Amino acid sequence: MGRTLAEKVWDAHVVRKGAAGEPDxxxxxxxxxxxxTSPQAFDGLREAGRPVRRPDLTIATEDHNIPTVDIDKPIxxxxxxxxxxxxxxxxxxxxxxxxxxxxxxxxxxxxxxPQTGLTQPGMTIVCGDSHxxxxxxxxALAFGIGTSEVEHVLxxxxxxxxxxxxxxxxxxxxxxxxxxxxxxxxxxxAKIGTGGGQGYVLEYRGEAIRALSMESRLTVCxxxxxxxxxxxxxxxxxxxxxxxxxxxxxxxxxDWDAAVANWRELVTDDDAVFDAEVVISAADLEPFVxxxxxxxxxxxxxxxxxxxxxxxxxxxxxxxxxxxxYMGLKAGTPMREIPVDTVFIGSCTNGRIEDLRVAAEVLKxxxxxxxxxxxxxxxxxxxxxxxxxxxxxxxxxxAGGEWRGAGCSMCLGxxxxxxxxxxRAASTSNRNFEGRQGKGGRTHLVSVPVAAATAVRGxxxxxxxxxxxxxPALV
Amino acid sequence: xxxxxxxTHTGVGVPxxxxxxxxxxxxxxVYLKRVTKTGFEDGLFAAWRxxxxxxxxxxxxxxxxxxxxxxxxxTGSSREHAVWALKDYGFRVVLSSRFADIFRGxxxxxxxxxxxxxxxxxxxxxxxxxxxxxxxxxxxxxxxTATCGTAVFTFQVDDYTRWRLMEGLDDIGLTLRHEAxxxxxxxxxxxxxxxxxxVLS
Lengths: 475, 201
Ligand code: SF4
Fold this sequence. Notes:
The complex is a heterodimer of chains A (475) and B (201).
Chain A lengths: L4 H7 L2 E3 L7 E4 L2 E4 L5 H10 L9 E4 L16 H17 L2 E3 L9 H8 L7 E4 L13 E4 L2 H10 L1 E4 L3 E8 L8 H12 L7 E6 L1 H4 L3 H9 L8 E3 L4 H7 L9 H10 L12 E6 L6 E3 L7 E3 L13 H14 L14 E4 L1 H4 L2 H11 L9 E4 L4 H9 L2 H8 L2 E2 L20 E4 L14 E4 L2 H10 L18
Parallel strand pairs in A: 3-4, 3-6, 4-5, 6-7, 9-10, 9-12, 10-11, 15-16, 15-18, 16-17, 18-19
Antiparallel strand pairs in A: 1-2, 2-8, 13-14
Chain B lengths: L7 E9 L6 H4 L19 H4 L16 E4 L11 H9 L3 E4 L4 H10 L2 E4 L2 H13 L4 E5 L4 E4 L2 E4 L4 H9 L3 H6 L2 H9 L14
Parallel strand pairs in B: 1-2, 2-3, 3-4
Antiparallel strand pairs in B: 1-5, 5-6, 6-7
The structure holds iron/sulfur cluster (SF4).
């Protein structure tokens, strides 16, 4: 019988097959490290007198806790500073390469991997971070792990893993104008639910997925975890190979040919069977926005805040009531009438160069609405530099937005970039949990064009809602 | 081998007459911001340690190492810090009539014995310890018995966990028993797989 993409990658990494019901021991090709989930793992190694087995397959970057302005000053928050200092010390002690604040390759761990070419098809990639699923867009099997597993990988470069189930998510047809890959994944999560992917590795396939750029595919795989899945994958194709070619860590010369020949095999066989299948029609999609406090609580932008009273499932109704109370929203309010205080464009979901280009296109010649704060935060230093080379920073600044340094920033309330109590944000990030962007903060997850248009109109909007942009005066 | 092999252990028994002790009570979330894996003893049962009547604040029990707890011990979040805190304080054994699954799993991995016994036996142990504060309990993992004075109780622990504890094997130690297979796998990896070292260009 044929195998799925995920099964092929799994099989190629089995160091030792577990007896029936026992986990397989899997080899890990790349281990990404950041400051929050690694300190105790290194401490455990130290305590046991163990070295890092393969520092050359390990890379660290600082992203979660760091500020995105004044990066030359000491980190003000003591806990954050301690975690970052600890990572630097551990990296030095154990011989792990680190991209620290100020380094040209510093950035969000899931942006750095793909941009340096370290993320390649068919690899097993882990990180002490649930959004490691991002790297699956290259046809890698990539997933988040806990701190004791981080220690395990550091010490052995392997992980004992129980087999998973496979789910095909087929997105047929063509995406309508104005919709993006973010709308695909938000619609997927709304359809299967935040627990629908539990125990599965998702494989996104179909015409609409093939049509996406690599960076848009990263956005889809990034949020697999929000559907409860361990990982999400997309089979590599010519776009994947073209994206990787000539990146610093891409194979060169004869190695490149050998690698590509191997990568071409990484597709689900025609006769392979998935444990579950879901089909979505791209043509039906619209810009999607969330109204609640989990990523599954979303509706099309043209819709309204749902009425919990209409929900038949009691658990769902109770959850919706709680969400609306936290979000300060009334059932029936058209989504387009919801005003925001802050717009955040960034994160490992939507903080890459293509995202910034889309945002700049919407913002060019326009102004951010009065009373709205627009934060544009590149996912990495290289994204930042590229954007500046293209003049995108000027577009954001002229529109009245902030242009900041690279990091996780307002994606999570662990660094200085936070919402105040009761503040409402349209955010291109991936989680709208209570307090995620700051204690008491309210989050609407949106795509990049919706975020940019919302900054201009001040209420949730798509670019189609905007008046034509001012044309530069002729000289 | 990173853990001390566990065969028998004798230490002061500590009666914790509470049920449903969750991981937040074992160690509150504020202690999770630390960067070490040890030194969590001060966070153990932090909310109760201010109470002078709390059992660990009594001289007879202060140096306890065998915790005799009420049912449903270790419920709540999956934080491994709960086990670290108990171990750092000096506990080697927790006895209870029911453990949360994740806590039990985490314990086995970190070398803390979570032995399950009937609630009747727990109550009897509590009485013995109350009548003779500072009494020791001897736990024999091979025999799966806990002895206090002349009273002998049996407890349960699954065979796999028992074997691991007796061998002193943590997860990493277990994997490293297969190091030759890891070496062989590495030797066969394709040369074009990327490494993180700086690229010369
Ligand atoms: S950007 Fe957000 S989701 Fe991504 S790694 Fe950082 S904190 Fe996690």
